[in-house]
Design goal:
This is Glyoxylate/hydroxypyruvate reductase A. This protein is an alpha/beta fold. It has helices at 14-22, 70-73, 90-108, 111-119, 143-154, 177-186, 207-210, 230-239, 279-295; strands at residues 2-6, 27-30, 40-45, 61-64, 84-85, 135-139, 158-163, 173-176, 190-193, 217-221, 242-247, 267-269.
Amino acid sequence: MAILCLLHQAYGKKLIGAIREGLPDEDIREWPEAGNPDDIEICMIFRMSPGFLAPYKNLKLISATGAGVDHYLLDPEFPRHLPLVRVVDESFAARMADYVLSWVMFHHRDIAHYLDAQKRREWAFKVMRPASEVTIGVMGLGQMGALTAKRLASLGYDVRGWARTPHEIDGVECFAGEAGFGSFLTKTEILINLLPLTPETRGILSSGTFDRMPKGGVLISAGRGGHMVEADIIAALNDGQLRAATIDAFQKEPVPQDHPFWDTSGLYVTPHCSSTASLETIVDSFAGNVRRFRAGEPLLNIVDYAQGY
């Protein structure tokens, strides 16, 4: 039986080559050269159109190429009776924290002000607030969110965190559930979204959230496009409830050329680049689970469909 791979092209042919080296005894096929659909027992998929998996009647295992799996679960034909595994990279969280810290400092130190002033050839001095006076709220306190919150706290920021369930993180004031959401937002000046996308978190980046923050706040979202109510983000930026936003993941990618996000003042678009698993981790994680599957052993990093991650 064969393995079919539909992979991210960021690594070119290096990734499929490394998978073949890591699993030398397997029949590895790269889409679109799938061959007989009945041969396919395992699929490793980056992104797929709805119904992509339907032809593979003998499929027994599906693997994501990264940590996020919400886009797979949007497919109404996704075979939820089969195990879905994801890639968990220990350094993935560190790279995400690097991304968030870069943009926190950009917005805290108001780098946009100086860039605009340079264009005008203007010597535009500003007094900066110390980090201890800036309250940052991190939504999502899993592997990525917890590390990000700890790093921000270590730099002296006033950090608070919010998640579905209670957490304890040194140096971080933690809130949980709907009951704690309003209190979490009340003082949050820079809101960081690192939540998984679930039915409960879909659309959470909306006017109902922004209006509970101090006026002139900042949004940094490296979660999922489905978290956003796009019109509410644009409205909040236009009316000053938000002074700036950095967004890395979108409902449609690449962002269409005519999308208003490109031209909205104070909005910074990055091309879903906040963090990626390393080539080595992708291969090691996938190959390890294939070996476990062949040996009838428990799989690693298996997705809980009820939780959505």
